[in-house]
Amino acid sequence: MSKFLKLSVTALAALSMWACVDNANMNKPANMNANSNASNSNANATASKAAPTVDALMALDKQANDAFAKGDGQFFQNFLSDKFAMSEMGKRETKADAVKMISSAKCDIKNASYDDPKLSMIDADNYALVYKSTTDGTCTADGKTQKIPSPMTVATVWTRNGDKWEAIWHGETPIIDPKNAPKSAPAAPPAKMAANSNSNANASTAPASDPNIDAMVAVEKSGWEAWKARDAAKLESITTANASFVGLFGNYDATKADVIKDWTGGTCDIKSTSVTDTSGQTISPTFGFIMFKGSADGTCENMKISPVWGTSFYVKEGDAWKLAFGFETPA
Q1: How would residue 311 be classed by pLDDT, with cut points 50, 70 and 90?
Q2: Could you tell me which of 75, 73, 77, 62 has the C-alpha nearest to residue 20?
Q3: Which residues share a beta bridge with 224?
Q4: 146 in Cβ contact with 8 (< 8 Å)
Q5: Per the domain annotation, does 6 fall within a domain?
């Protein structure tokens, strides 16, 4: 059961992955998660498409790291997908927003490292790279200097565009020991992935209404209700065989079995749930993601549940949209 610790994390810190890659670790071996094996491939995977490697995607992050440290926002014009989106405490950020922010920021990184990178397949053309980042440094923007949160669980979702891979989303969440969380830190609903968006906060850049997004939101809401009821069968039916999830404490559930166990475990008393402030992107006819605010009235492990920003990546299998990867951050 994931829980929630109130922290203020800016969008600049959320891009700190690209200022947190240690060259000495670039050749560290990393294996793909078992959940991305061909035997577990979802309905959209095709054997003819070569999967990326952890090393290849981490190498791209290194290029971005160099550009970020130099404040080279122009680099990200070709690095990010045109449909790139993330959030700053619930405010939707687009590719243009990210480029502008990076161009105006100044960072001082004393040392940084990453550990345990893993690659989780969403479908044949989309993969989530997840790893631990440890950083000693600061970033300054708008005249304010902020220490980069550390350690963090970092995730970037990569999409295939012709013969190259582009970043389509990025998120980070602090790694917290649940046993040492302050008493004032509320719990958070696990089953609903994480990180970003407030369609009202940036309405001028929000995408037009899309029936596929509406369908994903409907599944998301049903998932929250299934989490409330501890309905493992329902959660099984609305997730892909490769489903993986990053929770608010920075915990990474790399397999579907771990995800379902996380969402149905613990002791909770939940009266109601809600999914609001929704927006999203349809990347292809069978792939897209939504960003939202998830809330619940109740307690988990005797702590009051507080809202989260969530990002959920969905794959269409037949006529049904199913959750493939999720990420949580504090709201």
Answers
A1: very high
A2: 62
A3: none
A4: no
A5: no
pLDDT digits (tens, 9 = 90+) for 142-156: 889 999 889 999 999
Give the span between the Cα atoms of 264 and 273, in whole angstroms.
15
Per-residue burial over 267-286, b = 16 or more CB atoms within 10 Å of its CB, e = otherwise: ebebeebebebbbbbbbeeb
- Residue partners of 88: CB distance under 8 A and separation at least 6: 10, 11, 14
Average pLDDT over residues 298-312: 90
Whether residue 269 contacts residue 301, with contact meaning beta carbons closer than 8 Å, is answered with no
Question: CA-CA distance, 76 to 166, in Å (whole number)?
Answer: 10
**Structural domain count, the chain:** 1
| Eight-state DSSP code of residue 6 | -
For residues 267 and 44, which has the higher predicted lDDT (pLDDT)? 267
> In angstroms, rounded to a whole number, what is the distance separating the alpha carbons of residues 264 and 74?
44
Q: 195: burial class by Cβ within 10 Å (0-12, 13-18, 19+)?
A: buried
Quick one: pLDDT at residue 182?
A: 46
* 5 occurs within a structural domain: no
Within a domain: 28 = yes
Cα separation, 290 vs 209, whole angstroms: 12
Contact 221, 191 (CB under 8 A): no
DSSP letters, 188-245, are --SSS-B----TTTTGGGSPPP-HHHHHHHHHHHHHHHHHHHT-HHHHHHTEEEEEEE
**DSSP conformation letters of 11-55:** HHHHTGGGG---GGGTT---PPPGGGSGGG--TT--TTSPPP-HH
Alpha-carbon gap, residue 159 to 280, rounded angstroms:
16
Residue 1 domain-assigned (yes or no) = no
